[in-house]
């Protein structure tokens, strides 16, 4: 099983980019404050997830007309146009989940996607899953530090906020969820959470942990449509050829193994309602081959505020 390398974009450009690597022992640090040889190895071998601030996206649910599945991404902008207060040409629509006639869609500015793709390319990252930062934790978890709080409600719903705004976001979540709520919290005292909830505190069951020991599973990938990576078989073969040659040499020294056996190991072990209905999820998913990022036209865009915030 490959290791997981998580990279976290900050909300403020002046703040550092953080990384965290999941192996039997969790490593973490500031990007790219690691030895270049180790970093290059990780970029080749690890599953990579880039988490962006949840404030950059809004998540919607929309009922789909009866169209072929492959056409769904092309009609999402038209289905959501009336609900958005900006030119849909300036926005990127990424389906996170499609369940029969209901699509869950992330909406983000093209400018954010352009910045993401350029950063990935500049850092030699050719395969990645891009998702909001609250997808980095399991469902039913809330995590906080001195600056920010993230909360994941379910697969496709969650929120991110600065510490000062977090109580407002949490109360909005409570207003939306009428049933009792169970939360596992890290970095936030249960008493503080109860204070945020006010009169709704009696609906809360809170479990506090010193740390998150399992990472979240991303639902979908924002790298879709014009931002979807293209497979570069030339680059892929160039990397495999080096790895295969090294393995063949090692096998020869050991007196066992064939070129075919080595190639097989590399292949298997090295890679690893009715139309128009829509709802915003106020509180609110990766290409594994080598690839090159396709860039759309260089039109400007502004940041969209998450719906309901």
From TrEMBL:
Region entry Disordered, spans: 264-283
GO CC, alphabetical: Gram-negative-bacterium-type cell wall; type II protein secretion system complex
Domain GspL cytoplasmic actin-ATPase-like: 37-138
GO biological process: protein secretion by the type II secretion system
Source taxon at top rank: Bacteria
NCBIfam families: typeII_sec_gspL
Protein name, UniProt field: Type II secretion system protein L
Organism listed in the record: Escherichia coli
Higher taxonomy: Bacteria, Pseudomonadati, Pseudomonadota, Gammaproteobacteria, Enterobacterales
Gene: gspL
């Amino acid at each position: 099983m490959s290791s997981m390398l998580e990279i976290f974009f900050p909300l403020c450009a002046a703040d550092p980019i953080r990384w965290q690597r999941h192996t039997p022992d969790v490593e973490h640090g500031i990007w790219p404050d690691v030895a270049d040889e180790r970093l290059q190895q990780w970029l080749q071998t690890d599953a990579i997830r880039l988490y962006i601030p949840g404030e950059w996206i809004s998540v919607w649910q929309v009922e789909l007309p009866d169209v072929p599945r492959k056409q769904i991404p092309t009609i999402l902008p038209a289905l959501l146009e009336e609900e958005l207060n900006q030119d849909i040409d300036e926005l990127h629509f990424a389906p996170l989940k499609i369940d029969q006639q209901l699509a869950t869609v992330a909406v983000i500015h093209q400018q954010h996607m352009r910045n993401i793709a350029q950063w990935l390319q500049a850092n030699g990252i050719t395969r990645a899953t891009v998702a909001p930062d609250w997808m980095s934790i399991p469902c039913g978890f809330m995590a906080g530090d001195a600056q920010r709080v993230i909360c994941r409600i379910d697969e496709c719903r969650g929120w991110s906020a600065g510490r000062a705004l977090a109580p407002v976001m949490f109360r909005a979540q409570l207003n939306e969820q009428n049933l009792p709520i169970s939360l596992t919290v890290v970095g936030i005292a249960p008493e503080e959470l109860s204070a945020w909830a006010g009169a709704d505190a009696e609906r809360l069951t809170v479990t506090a942990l010193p740390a998150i020991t399992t990472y979240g599973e991303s639902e979908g990938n924002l790298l879709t449509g014009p931002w979807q990576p293209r497979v570069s078989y030339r680059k892929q073969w160039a990397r495999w050829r080096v790895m295969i040659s090294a393995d063949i040499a090692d096998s020869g020294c050991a007196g066992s193994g064939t070129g075919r056996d080595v190639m097989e190991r590399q292949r298997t072990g090295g890679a690893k309602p009715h139309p128009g209905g829509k709802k915003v999820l106020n509180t609110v998913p990766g290409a594994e081959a080598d690839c090159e990022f396709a860039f759309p036209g260089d039109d400007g865009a502004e940041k969209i505020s998450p719906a309901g915030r």
